[in-house]
Amino acid sequence: MLYTYQYLHSQSLNGVSKSHTNEVVIQTDALTRTFGTHTAVDNLTLEVNAGEIFGFLGHNGAGKTTTVRLLNGLLEPTQGHARVLGLDPVTQGPQLRQRTGVLTETPSLDDRMTAYENLAVYAAIYGLPRPIARTRANELLTIFGLAERMHDRVAGYSKGMKQRLALARALVHQPDLIFLDEPAAGLDPVVTRQLHELILHLSRDEGKTIFLCTHNLDEAQKLCQRVAVLQKGRVLALGTPSQLARDLVSEIRLTLEIDLSQADLAAELLARFTSKPLVLEASGLTVAGIVREQIPDVITALVSAGVRLYRVNHDAPTLEDVYFTLHTAAPEAA
Ligand SMILES: Nc1ncnc2c1ncn2[C@@H]1O[C@H](COP(=O)(O)OP(=O)(O)OP(=O)(O)O)[C@@H](O)[C@H]1O
Ligand SMILES: [Mg+2]
């Protein structure tokens, strides 16, 4: 279980709330990486602003992890450029990695060491003086709910505990820019929620920038100011979740609270507007595949046919709707 972030907060900020700037911390220009004949990242051009939580979405193999490696100077681009925190990842990798924290998708922890030792070794690599490293390790292990087990060997840790330790390790040197590649993988729902709070806290209160690779569309919807949807190394769409929903998802779902004895009549009328199946629930009829502009016509058709209509709701399209709309419009070649 994660604990409150008060301590970390007061240590790093001395109670002063950081404001976000419009500074661009990641800038890529036609960034491209091929492996043999396969293009993993294809002409990627994007900007990420300071203090923002930027979501990077895409199917397995879309190029998310390869991008993270390119942006940290762990892999060289075949073409194109990136600037991260004002540095060139190709020529200034070590300098850059002092200021970035990376949670990789398969973190390599030393199983033979304790959690505390794992963090202490990392802190030493980053040049943190020993007393500061000790405080920082204790603080992070407390935040991530590992304080009681901090002197146990990592070999005996559960998957979720290892993931929490890896997260703590990514933060040990107080990086300005944090890359999280599937951070909630293996975490239980309680810890996942606490992780989300921590991510929001790091961005909102500490001004950290978070580059979040995730398959969890609810997570992205909840946390990210902007997202990019990647397919085969290319950006299919980029914007705020609500912008993308507005621009890309034309069909919505309506829930109609009606006199249920008239459900057959209502269903017959609704079938004129959509071929999608209707769902009858105690709360009413739910119908998908309606275009927003059709709503007045749907209501007119029902009311003029004598259907007693008590309430009409429409669900705001979600990032999940955006994601599936995009992938249906541009299916991946087999
Ligand atoms: N070192 C490598 N050698 C050869 N091909 C690679 C290498 N690294 C990545 N690739 C290929 O590049 C493509 C993108 O892989 P990447 O790991 O970036 O995808 P991803 O979006 O992170 O996927 P996932 O959601 O499964 O983690 C894949 O087709 C992968 O096989
Ligand atoms: Mg990946």
The largest β sheet comes out as: 6 strands, mixed
Could you say which structural class the secondary elements and strand pairing correspond to? alpha/beta
Q: How many β-strand stretches?
A: 13
Identify the strand order in the major beta sheet. 5-6-7-3-8-9
According to CATH, the homologous superfamily of the domain at 6-99 and 175-245 is: P-loop containing nucleotide triphosphate hydrolases
Oligomer: single chain
Contiguous uncertain segments of 5+ residues: 3-19
Q: What Rg is obtained from the alpha carbons, in whole angstroms? A: 24 Å
Task: Describe the structure in your own words.
By secondary structure, the protein is α/β, with parallel strands linked by helices. Among the domains are: 6-99 and 175-245, P-loop containing nucleotide triphosphate hydrolases (Rossmann fold, 3-Layer(aba) Sandwich); 251-316, 2-Layer Sandwich (Alpha-Beta Plaits). Helix content is 36%, strand content 27%. It has helices at residues 6-13, 64-71, 93-97, 115-125, 130-143, 159-171, 189-204, 217-223, 241-248, 263-270, 295-304, 319-329, and strands at residues 24-35, 38-49, 53-58, 79-84, 100-103, 177-181, 209-213, 226-231, 234-239, 251-258, 278-281, 284-291, 309-315. The strands form three sheets. It has a six-stranded mixed β-sheet with strand order 5-6-7-3-8-9, with helices on both faces. The longest helix is centred in the middle third of the chain and has 16 residues, at 189-204. It starts with 5 loop residues before the first helix and ends in a 5-residue tail after the last helix. It binds adenosine-5'-triphosphate and magnesium ion. Adenosine-5'-triphosphate (ATP) binds at residues 35, 38, 40, 58, 60-66, 105.
